Amino acid sequence: MTVEVALSVMAGAGVEHLLLCDADDTRTGSVTRAELVVHRGSSAYTDRVRLRDVLGRPTPMVGTPSFLL
Description:
Elements: H1 3-13, E1 17-21, E2 27-32, H2 33-40, H3 51-54
Helix pairs in contact: 1-2
């Protein structure tokens, strides 16, 4: 699932977080709408970025100089 699709699903369902599962329906984590919005605002973001690409990475802080990331 892409970040854009996840944000759309979250907005449509009126939820602030998604529980993430693997192919065996084992919970692997969760992600919040706020975390995804921060990733969407980063310079490396494209509309093809998938949730698995952003999970496990540190969430960049808004306004943090790139040399600190």
